[in-house]
Amino acid sequence: MLSFFRRNSSAVIIGAIGLLAGALVHQLRGPAAFRHALGNAADLFLVILPAMLAGLLLAGSLKQLVPTGVLARWMGAESGMRGLLLATVAGMAMPGGPMAAFPLVLVLAQGGADRGALIAFIVAWALNGLQRVLVWEVPLLGADFALLRFLCGLPLPFIAGVLARRVPIRWSPPGAGPA
Amino acid sequence: MTPGQILLIAVALIAFGLTLRRGLPTAQRALRETGQTVVRVLPLLALALPMAAFLAELIPADIGSGLLGPESGLTGLVIASFAGGFIPGGPFVSFPLVLTFIKAGAGGPQVVALVSGWAILGFHRVIAWEWPVLGPRFILIRLIASIALPVLAGLLAELLLPSFPHALARP
């Protein structure tokens, strides 16, 4: 029972908030508003379903076409502006959630990628990860908004990388010798 | 179906075609990968969409149009950036919630700052993943380097918004 909750913690939390919010809507705004909200949700579901299936197929295919080992080699030895640019592109191409991204960052760090490149990679993955943009943002918020948001985010990983190189805090990756 | 969705479907079919050219086993792995994600994501989506719809009924309209409205300016961008950082969970929670703010009348640059704040600052992700894997010093460096970026994204959005008249076509 407990392990079921742990494995499905997202679903449990979302479901619980949903039930609570649904009960509040029913109580405060009446049954008509409740049905209206459910109808909205169902409409939205049907609208985004085809794009979402396509986005997931794209992510699944890309994972087969771009091996992660190549990403590590791109970033490992490079530095300078070119390193930041490569890290940004690699971060955007990186599919998967935090359970895939952060361990890879650690591997890249231990392989010699500098903090600027690592931070550019993290920001690019979190902000402009193509998989998330295509699977979630385009279907839910619309292609126009997604493109606007994407364009505004485009220079940010680069800026974060440049700034990170200037922050006067010493850091060496866990599991490696002192830098 | 919007042009964006048609484009996405076309690109997905091309990518899948490329895996087919690599041979049937590669294509099968891609399909299996896709199937596993669909099975994981669809139930979450089926729960998250009603949740977001109920919250949309409950969130007072004046938060969207006032605090984060198009007239809220730089203050609105700063509030949106940090509010975004506190949205928990993955994209299946954040995007339906963001949609409720759009429907409630939030301004385009403010929504850009909100999404960017969730992605860049995402405090739940920092605590759950970044801290254990990379350590507190790394987090400090990264947050110092990126804390102002969501606001910057919002400012860029204010410049670009005139070129995107349909950005907030409220669905």
From TrEMBL, chain A:
Q: TM segments?
A: 37-62, 83-109, 115-134, 146-164
Q: Record's superkingdom?
A: Bacteria
The entry's keywords: Membrane, Transmembrane, Transmembrane helix
Identification of the protein by name: Permease
Origin organism is Siccirubricoccus soli
UniProtKB/TrEMBL annotation, chain B:
What membrane topology is given? Multi-pass membrane protein
Protein's name in the database: Permease
What organism is listed for this UniProt entry?
Answer: Siccirubricoccus soli
Q: What is its main location?
A: membrane
Domain of life of the native organism: Bacteria
Please verify whether the record's keywords include NADP.
no
What Pfam families does the annotation carry? ArsP_1
Q: Which UniProt keywords apply?
A: Cell membrane, Membrane, Transmembrane, Transmembrane helix
Transmembrane stretches, by residue range?
Answer: 6-25, 37-56, 76-99, 111-127, 139-161
Family (UniProt)? Belongs to the UPF0718 family.
InterPro entries noted in UniProt = DUF318
